[in-house]
UniProtKB/TrEMBL annotation:
Pfam families: LRR_6
Protein name as catalogued: Leucine rich repeat containing 74B
InterPro entries xrefs: Leu-rich_rpt (IPR001611), LRR-containing (IPR052394), LRR_dom_sf (IPR032675)
Top-level division of the source organism's lineage: Eukaryota
Classification lineage: Eukaryota, Metazoa, Chordata, Craniata, Vertebrata
Amino acid sequence: MKDSELTVKHRGLSPKAAKALALSLTSNTSIVKLNLSDNGLDGNGAIAMAEMLKENCYISELDLSENRVGIKGAEALSAVLRENPVLVTVKLSGNELNDRAAIYLADALVTNQKVEHLDLSHNMLGQPAGEALGVAMAENVGLKKLDLSWNNFRGQGAVAVAKGLGVGKGTRFESFPEG
């Protein structure tokens, strides 16, 4: 395979199919962009992709949007973010991520300074997520673009994110929820 981008969207891949795909990508050196959006991978499929990303140090852009990765998937992906020096773009929009999932991701962002674009839009993130992400933004100097639109940030959560951005160097919101 010589293409640098693999896009498999809207195909209904099962977690089992995700494991098979992850196995084949583990040693692939040509794919740098992987888009598996809207496939119903769930947490187990995300775990398979995370395991692959521990070995594959070529994929720099990952789109797992609309896959219901949930807490299990967020925890596995967070572990990879702590180790993987290559991922620059991570899209996790519409994945039923809640505050606990965001806390895992925020903890990873404190140590990972390589991710430049993070999309957490269309999830279920609220005040605890905002507070955790605010701390991460204050510590992280690599993140340049953050999309938190269509979440449930209110009051203290939104203030914490804003404060974190004020301390951080160069992060900007792609969009921020209105209301």
